[in-house]
Amino acid sequence: ESIKTVLTSPENRILIKRMLIKCADISNPCRPIEQCIEWAGRISEEYFAQTDEEKRQGLPVVMPVFDRNTCSIPKSQISFIDYFITDMFDAWDAFADLPNLMQHLDNNFKYWKGLDERKLRSLRPPP
């Protein structure tokens, strides 16, 4: 009933649609672990390439943490989850009840935290 009340306002519907788009854009930590790892690698490589190009051209480096020689992918994922994902998806879960999504988020955070605790900087532990 409370959701129906929220959805009666055109402004609220627009806000919810904007929030859905934003959540979809940054939802990688809420995917199943294998997809999360794959996309974290792709996103990191995109940022590494940007940093490489900025250095090559002598431009200011926008994201110095994404220097491929020093970056810890687990640390970058932990920070991203801590600063952007957790609160946003906690709020979304309270509104829409998304237990599977929240379980993936918890599993992925623990995965990245485990790599970081082992002082690993890569996407996966060594074989």
From TrEMBL:
Positions of the PDEase domain: 1-119
Pfam families, alphabetized: PDEase_I
Domain of life: Eukaryota
Coiled coil: none
GO annotation (BP), single: signal transduction
UniProt lineage: Eukaryota, Metazoa, Chordata, Craniata, Vertebrata
Keywords: Hydrolase, Metal-binding
Matches recorded under InterPro entries: PDEase_catalytic_dom, PDEase_catalytic_dom_sf
Molecular function GO terms recorded: 3',5'-cyclic-nucleotide phosphodiesterase activity; metal ion binding
Name of the protein this chain belongs to: PDE8A phosphodiesterase
